[in-house]
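Lab meeting notes turned into a lecture example. A postdoc, R.K., suggested we walk through two folding results consecutively so the class can see how the record format repeats. The first protein's sequence and structure tokens come next.
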Amino acid sequence: MIRIGVLGAGGRMGQAIIAEIQAAPDCILAGGVERAGHAMCGTPLGEGMVICANAAPVAHKADVLIDFTSPVALEENLRAAQDGKSAILIGTTGLQPRHHALIDAAAKSIPVLQAANTALGVTLLAALVEQAARALDASWDIEIVELHHRHKVDAPSGTALYLGEAAARGRGAPLSELRLPAHEGMTGPRRGGGIGFAALRGGSAAGDHRVILAGEGERIELGHVAENREIFARGAVRGARWVAKQKPGRYAMADMFRDALSKAAS
């Protein structure tokens, strides 16, 4: 049995993940954590547990933590995972370079799976985007369009940036070199070989992502539509199962897929 602790247990994603854990025959909920003062703190989770405001005790009981909180909580959550010697899956988006440096440091002592998106289909989409960008030359423009619910705070989304990084790998350069400024006002001719982003916000959209590769007289569109949050919860629990069994290091959802394909072929 895999013992899983949920950080951000009071949010919509946290609640979906808890439901997925409780429905899984091979998983046990080790506890839930929210920020101090959150309305869900003290809410019962069953088996004598309540949502608490301290990640450390949960980390000591868990094989793996699933973190869907905020960038400001990441350092404390990583510290708790290291102290409890538990693996951690990080689904938090909006991370900055200093957050990635913290993840790199933690990965020296515990297994860390950092995922901009835990939906299994998005991992496959990124692989397709990288292949397409590699096969097509710089005369094909790349634009990434994403739509999320009105409450999402980071833009472009972590998933859009993840897809942009896949396209940049296909083009053989870092995204920081290829990313175009936002299309607004008098933009002039589009820079060849660049990667553009458009972020849309509204309603209750769980997450729509479309990668447009536009050439002269033809266009390829690759996309993924999230119809509900359960797909992210399902992928997060699958990722948690996998990373809990790994050696210390930094991993991505694609590593889990490669591992599964390797075992299937052997």
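The second example is placed directly after the first for contrast:
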Amino acid sequence: MNTPDGPAAANTPKPALPHPLPGAIGLSHLSAYDWEAADGVCGGSPHLHLVCTEAYVVTGGRGAVQTLSPDGYRDIPLEPGSVAWFTPGTVHRMVQGGDLRITVLMQNSGLPEAGDAVFTFPPEVLAVPEWYASLATLPPGTGAEVEEAARRRRDLAVEGYLGLREALVAGDDGPYAEFQRAAARLVRGKVPRWRELWRAGALATAERTGAQLDALQAGEPAYLGEATAHETAPTRLGGFGMCGRRDEYNLPGTTLPYGGE
């Protein structure tokens, strides 16, 4: 979650997302980590999102995504062509089964970049925002130092996750519910910024469709004169994300570096 949530972020200009992808989604490509965790499973850092639904479109290899939610623990197989998605509040952990490669689609482009994710660190870490931030944030770059920090972060998230999963499987949803509450407390101060991004991105996109429907109904489709095409390419290859090595895109209108999966 290497996002600029400190003083620099407070001075970020108000967002303008004039040409978002369809539905104002975020996009990245991901190769799942093959690092073995304490439970013998290779994969990424378990976490949840507070307001964004996320989808995995599998393009290669095999693996799984483990989820924790009010309906219990699930282990969803991933193989080429399969799609899995999870709503806000669902803890998810990507598991590597062999060359797993996915395309990640994130709701509300701009919000994940602004920190809409909380790792399943142990409760004592979640209770101290400064401690949490120091362990959740990676140094810049893609070298060995960053990889080591990403592995430490993953291992700490797995430590907390295994406790949540054990309790949930045993029928005790108390620790899981408390984790959700702790996550909400951690991000509360970011909500005004998220609201700005939502208004400029997802909400503006939906409202634009409404205006277009009004124009069509009135027989005055002047907006079609603004038709155009856009293109982009990865701006960083192999960055360290939450679940794996990420190819990141600087999509039109996105003002913050991506810090999601």
